Amino acid sequence: MGVVRTRIAPSPTGFLHIGTARTALFNYIFTKKYQGQFVLRIEDTDIERSDEKFEMDIIEGLKWLGLNWDEGPEIGGDYAPYRQSERNYTYAKYTQKLLDENKAYYCFCSQEELEAQRADLISEGLAPIYSGKCRNLSKEEIAEKLNGNNKYIIRFKMPGKKIFFDDMIRGNLEFDTELVGDFAIAKNIGIPLYNFAVVVDDFEMKITHIIRGEDHISNTPKQIALCEALDFPILQYAHLPLILGHDRSKMSKRDGATSIIEYKKQGFLPEAMINFMALLGWNPGTNKEIFSIKELEKEFSMERIQKSGAIFNIQKLESINAHYIKKMTLEKLADLCAPYFKKAGYKTNDEKLKKIIKLEQERIKKISDILEIAKFFFEPSDYLAEILIWKKSNKEKALATLKDVLKNFESVADNNFNIQNLKPILDILTEKHNGAGEVFWPLRVALSSQESSPPPLEIAEILDKKETLKRIKIAIDKLMQI
RNA sequence: GGCCCUAUCGUCUAAUGGUUAGGACGGAAGCUUCUCAAGCUUCAAAUCCGGGUUCGAUUCCCGGUAGGGCCA
Q1: b vs e for A195-225, b when ≥16 Cβ sit within 10 Å of the residue's Cβ?
Q2: ipTM field
Q3: Would you say the pTM of this structure is higher than 0.90?
Q4: Distance A447 CA to B44 C1' (A)
């Protein structure tokens, strides 16, 4: 394969959603595999709907995922600018060329007229294409209408023929352009419409491979026809299957976050997102499921991309995320968790934090889970006295064991208050009270204020002697009141 | 409405013209000194339908059906 140049070309009319992120990923790993260049181009031709905040979100999201580009709006490159709104002179040049060569024409048909035609054609069961009314206006007619300030658009003269292309994922695809008709390419000389701007930019930016969503398949024949008219080379196309919502339709808000940054906020790790997205539509052909981005760069192949759409399944994402959390070093995980405690107003130190993280590491699926699952270390919550009683036990026994534990713990020196020294005590009490449940359960609930938690001694050590005794006393008081 | 794409457990997917149709997530059960989590073991769960081609089709072909996409 020669030089590979790819691009991700999002419109800043919305946040970076999972589909665009996944397309970016496939472009990125494909490009890296062939040591090519990856370009970010902002397609902001729709000025009304484009917003800088969306562009920022897109850039932030891609960077967070680690999908760095070699050329783009904020870093420049040989083919700058990389924002379509700044490239009007380029589009104007090619629009004029098509007009001069009689490959495009002014169309003065009104919106109402066009819609009426469409409706007619559809009701007759025909393809809703443009009639070609303005195709052969004379120079005089055009000049007259232009002078008369008539509203117009510029249409491309679609050659009536079949267009074939070889999709890297789907194989040979054939389209009859008779069924497409003369489509609009520009609102004005310098104001291009989607298909035209894409073709011009991909040529100007020397893109070689277009890897994009399946939703662009039917745009491809239009773009190829434009390439032919402009004497541009035909590029390699690869159309990725779509990411679907729970009901197999397009992803909507209730199927997941609107922005990739939302996943970051929810505590997903970028490496998990990458891994998950890669598996949505691609597989290595082996049972291996965990891939770093570097491994993907090596093992990725277009041949193994799926043809059918994939439903976005957050549980799978969570399980992959949990995997990466388990593999993470304590230091790194602590760094990621610390802000959640800080935000909640809990003061901690490195040592305590690491102990907590070590204990909870295998219990969280997302970083954000840490606060909910570990806040009891900082402040006990109120709980029902009844939950102190083990299901196979009763109030009297719970009270007796807690009192016993309290008495024995009190005798341990402050600086010896750790698992190692506490365990023998619990072993003796377990024997004395006929079963681990009789001792572990009430103590654990007393320390954690909840029915499910890590084991009691691990908690006690982190809490320290003073806090442990305090919580046991509270539990005893609670039991006495029922 | 036209055109295009797609079809394997609930989900993501593997496989091959001949397999007990494999794995993962999720689910169920069990084991692991109380609970949770993790880990391990086990179980349930799929080739859309109908025709061909073939000794044999989940796989190749055709037609349906369903879903999706684009055309505004």
Answers
A1: bbbbbbbbbebebbbbbbbbebbebbbbbbb
A2: 0.94
A3: yes
A4: 40
